[in-house]
Specification:
Number of strands: 11
CATH architecture of the largest domain: 3-Layer(aba) Sandwich
Strand order of the largest sheet: 2-1-3-4-5
Structural class: alpha/beta
Helix content: 25-40%
Length: about 230
């Protein structure tokens, strides 16, 4: 299951991500509302964890924007606003759950599992570009008509999902870095380039006719081979 964690406190975000990873959740981090909205365009999430005190947008306004993009996505507000009036406001604004800081990791995990048990959560979805298909729930990529998965690691699958969700639009490199690497993780200047290179090679070796293009100074995009985007290589 994939979670978008919107939290501007770096140490706390790293702590939450580590705990949720241990509970077998994949977690993407966004420190600002604008980053969260861009990530939301790239990746299909099962749950959103939303802090209300963000540096660039009020959390409840961001909730409205997320709801406009995906009315069914479960949203758990995680905040230091402890007053009953704040909780009522958050739930009335469309949040599915409300948890205050400080909190126990075990309770957060239990609440996430409860949200995911609701009808409509974690619906299946398959992304397609050319003859390449990605089952975002099973976390498997394969060619159309084939039963043999393309051998991709977890991070390589995350790269592929971000690119396929863009559908021919550029995935900015800095957002890919934020999504792929958590707070406190070592990140070299070419970490994303190395992952993209590996995915390219594995797709080529498998016979996929979807190509990853580099848009210099910006990021990457994926198209079917017959498409030739301008300004890419």
């Amino acid at each position: 299951m994939r979670i978008l964690l919107i939290e501007d406190h770096t140490r706390l975000a790293g702590f939450i991500r580590k705990g949720l990873n241990a509970a077998q959740f994949d977690v993407d981090l966004a420190a600002k509302g604008s980053d969260a909205l861009e990530n939301f365009e790239c990746v299909r999430y099962d749950v959103v964890i939303l802090d209300l005190g963000l540096p660039d947008i009020e959390g409840l306004d961001l909730l409205d924007e997320l709801r406009a993009k995906d009315p069914a996505i479960p949203v758990l507000i995680l905040t230091s606003r402890v007053q009953l009036a704040d909780k009522i406001q958050g739930l009335n604004a469309g949040a599915d759950d409300y948890l205050t800081k400080p909190f126990a990791m075990e309770e957060l995990i239990a609440r996430l599992h409860a949200l995911l048990r609701r009808p409509g959560a974690a619906l299946g979805e398959t992304l397609k570009i050319g003859n390449l298909e990605l089952d975002v729930v099973a976390r498997e990529a394969r060619l159309a008509g084939s039963n043999q998965p393309v051998p991709l690691s977890r991070r390589e699958l995350s790269v592929l999902e971000q690119l396929m969700r863009r559908g021919g639009k550029v995935a900015p490199k800095h957002l890919m870095e934020q999504s792929l690497y958590g707070a406190g993780e070592d990140l070299s200047s070419n970490s994303v380039e190395v992952l993209v290179h590996r995915v390219r090679k594995k797709l080529t070796d498998s016979g996929a006719n979807a190509t990853i293009h580099t848009v210099r100074g910006i990021g990457y995009l994926m198209t079917a081979d017959e498409e030739s985007p301008i300004g890419s290589s």
